[in-house]
TrEMBL record:
Record's protein name: M48 family peptidase
Family annotation (InterPro entries): UTP_pyrophosphatase-like (IPR053136), YgjP-like_metallopeptidase (IPR002725)
YgjP-like metallopeptidase domain sequence ranges: 96-157
Organism: Simplicispira hankyongi
Organism superkingdom: Bacteria
Length: 174
């Protein structure tokens, strides 16, 4: 079925109605709400800084998982529906052993975003080191790394909804 709120399809109807109400108010209702809640953008400016940001979270919560080889902001990721970031792992034979190379890509539009949104995306991609599927164990791991994971995901989806409707980004580079 076609939805007028594609980023929020998985949420209860009552919440979607509330969002429609906010969008009705001259289109700025969502922007006002988001900027009030998240006034500041994060300061992660480069791929190198993003790599450190990601490894720090990984070392804190997933110390025994495979190392991450590469992390970058990717301007080729088009945020359509569910792809906010990507995790790829390529298995290669190295010295007679099978070694996986892990790469995490974050959609470039989140270079200008609150820290909470970046954290949610990175936590999501890190959880894929352990769980391939979006199952219960996967989300438990996400919440373990970021207790407000689900709230941040909803707010991030509200932001995507805002962009789709109003077209304007809300956070300039810090
Ligand atoms: Zn995923």
């Amino acid at each position: 079925m076609h939805s007028d709120l594609p980023y929020l399809r998985a949420y209860p109807q009552a919440l979607q109605d509330q969002v429609r109400g906010l969008l009705g108010e001259g289109g700025s209702g969502l922007a006002v709400l988001l900027l009030r809640k998240y006034p500041q953008a994060h300061g992660v400016r480069t791929d190198k800084a993003l790599y450190h940001y990601t490894t720090e979270l990984k070392n804190r919560y997933l110390r025994n998982a495979d190392a991450i080889n590469k992390v970058l902001f990717d301007n080729k990721i088009h945020v359509v529906r569910n792809a906010l970031g990507l995790h790829t792992s390529v298995s290669r034979v190295q010295g007679g052993k099978l070694a996986a190379k892990h790469e995490i890509r974050v959609a470039a539009m989140f270079k200008q975003a609150p820290d909470e949104f970046l954290r949610m995306i990175v936590v999501h991609e890190l959880a894929h080191l352990r769980e391939r599927e979006h199952n219960k164990a996967f989300y438990q791991l996400c919440v373990h790394m970021e207790p407000a994971y689900h709230q941040y995901e909803l707010d991030l989806r509200l932001y995507l909804t805002h962009i789709e409707r109003a077209g304007e980004r809300l956070w300039a580079a810090a």
